[in-house]
Amino acid sequence: MKSVKITKKDLKWHSLEDVFRQASKSNAFQQSYRGEVVRLRLAKQIRELRTGQRLTQHLVAKRANMPQSVIARVESGDRGISVDTLGKIAHTLGKEVQLV
Known about the structure:
Radius of gyration: 21 Å
CATH superfamily: lambda repressor-like DNA-binding domains
Order of helices and strands: HHHHH
Number of strands: 0
Distance between the termini: 60 Å
Number of helices: 5
CATH architecture: Orthogonal Bundle
Mean pLDDT: 92
Low-confidence stretches: none
Strand content: under 5%
Shape: elongated
Structural class: mainly alpha
Largest sheet: none
């Protein structure tokens, strides 16, 4: 097996902006990026509604009949959320889900 030595001069460095600019030309990337932005915005809205009403994650979870860990995951924005779960949380916070 032949060994290949890579030196610094063999590498080309790119800034984050360059990588992002190149990746953002892809339709798949743009669609995924928009989805992430929407999910994070929704997570922030849920957290702000809950804290604005001075409710704990535990209390919202209890009223929505789900584990507190689900509320924590939703608010973190780490994962997607089902429409059913979103509806239960929204109802608990005195809101309704509207698709536009």
